[in-house]
Input
Amino acid sequence: MGKYRYWRYGSDAPRVSTAELALSMRIPNDATGAFCRHNHVALAGRRNGSLAGLDFGVKDIFDIAQTTSSFGNPVWFETHEPALETAPAVKRLLDAGGSMVGRTVSDELAYSLTGENTHYGTPVNPRDPGRIPGGSSCGSASAVAAGLVDFALGTDCGGSVRLPSSYCGLLGIRPSLGRVSTEGVIPFSASFDVIGWFARDTGVLANVAEILLDIPRAARAPDRLIIAVDAFGFVDPSIKQALQPAINQVRGHFQRHDEKAICDDSLEDWFNVFRTIQASEIWANHGPWIERHNPTFGPGIDERMEWASKVLPCQVKDARARQMIIIDRINDVLGEDDVLCIPTSPRIAPLKNQDVNTIEVTYRHQAMGLLCISGLGGLPQISLPLTELECMPLGLSLVARHGNDEMLLEVAKSIMEN
Output
């Protein structure tokens, strides 16, 4: 609490202008580029609570009263008014005693997995500054990995918490769809949008879950571990080989284990279903603003927005029908007391400044073949930093049925602490 100076959170706080509020805070002095400079704000939490003494960052996509989120793009920042209220998820953390250090950099409109923001820079991956941190929750991952905060909020639609977790060597959770309120978060793709968070230890990860998960449930006792053979067959043999000791470690925490294919056809087809629905919803949410203001986007994002603008209603209808079949397939394979094991990523963090076709097409599409599984099913997923390759972290993920977040957190804690 002594590291930063905050504006006091609470109903008794005086109303001030955005400029006055920003000036009243000391922007975190970090060399990672994780925190936003142009719209900085910090809030002190309540003096008591389960999160008292913990600092956190918030992705630049959440509403903070009297200030404006930039959504990773300066034109968005210039064309939107300050928020009237703070997002409920942030309020809950403040009420529980956590203190918000600042906003963290996001990829533009959260539509990238790299973390290379053309306008606001690329937050440092503390494990190797020559490599990307992953996105779109890049600043949040960077801040936690660098030890600047105890945890940080991100959002995860297509993998924006899970992939940076793997790249930066963090614990990262994507909760079940709908378990955490997304009120006060700039909408992206409602069929898949969730609030997730990063931490360096399972205790903090679980403490945040206790605050954020709506209608907490008793954790089910896990019964069987399912190794998704098609997911591991989807990655390069060197990745599977590097993850094998971690798989063995996880297997030791289950009485039963099995090997099955999660997919009924191909993960590439599942990704195409995901990206069609996602793109249609993104364009519905933000297409009118793009057409009105004609903002400049960075590499990859511009091309995806162009593609999103051309998705046809008949394609969306077919994709939604296919998603229902995919959900049935997932429920057939994954029982209520089962945990699915998959690679978080098909690679370690790529080097920075790679050509657009490689980083934004080839690498993105390969990653999405794995990341779309939880997205399509609305499933909780936790990435665990259990192994390394070429001195870089490589995450292994655990996935459970929708609503079994508490079971997944208990399993993760058991694995990481034993």
Summary: Residues 1-24 have pLDDT under 50 and may be disordered. DSSP finds 13 helices and twelve strands in the chain. Residues 224-380+393-417 form a domain with the Amidase signature (AS) enzymes fold (CATH 3.90.1300.10).
